[in-house]
Amino acid sequence: xxxxxxxxxxxxxxxxxxxxxxxxxxxxxxxxxxxxxxxxxxxxxxxxxxxxxxxxxxxxxxxxxxxxxxxxxxxxxxxxxxxxxxxxxxxxxxxxxxxxxxxxxxxxxxxxxxxxxxxxxxxxxxxxxxxxxxxxxxxxxxxxxxxxxxxxxxxxxxxxxxxxxxxxxxxxxxxxxxxxxxxxxxxxxxxxxxxxxxxxxxxxxxxxxxxxxxxxxxxxxxxxxxxxxxxxxxxxxxxxxxxxxxxxxxxxxxxxxxxxxxxxxxx
Length: 267
What we know:
globular, disordered N terminus, 10 strands, single chain, 8 helices, 30% helix, alpha/beta, 7-stranded mixed sheet
């Protein structure tokens, strides 16, 4: 669920030029685990939860905010290209891989230890013809021009060990995210409503994207923003019908997403 351009222990590698010193190796916060009440949790050396997996249901989205990250399903039924920035426990990646058999699923994660522990402790499948987990900086990924205009869905969940605010939130980053999406593409972003960065993120996204809708806060402050590359006209009767289909097929609480969208637009 997170990716770090700069770790909390060390600055990211400086760019190497003529006469410059070799790049310094990035140091990451320690990857740690805990278990309670049938769930396994991922941490980065703090008490903050970076992801969760129910041991008896490894492909289920255990945390409510991760369920809300799938709210794009209300508007896109058959995605072809889904990319996740920040792997976390691989929950979103696994869910999309199992749920959308015709889609290409890409997950981008900077910390190799996170990728390793997802495979060993969180049942992340190996890469195949549909799944590609990449060790890479998420900012670098969206800035690559060969990705422009290729994605139906972009899911962004990029936190450091303190888990208080996204580490990728600049105007340039969100513009690159928009560039990677198709004209009718959608980005979902996990924000922290109680963090000073929240209003900055919303303002920046609203500048870049045609439409941004925030779902109600869950957990201890998580707010999911849905960003549309092209403004949409919402028919709530159709949206509730689509939500019922999603709930029947996946058991995700999609009707609550529609309720949240309606509340946000009426606010």
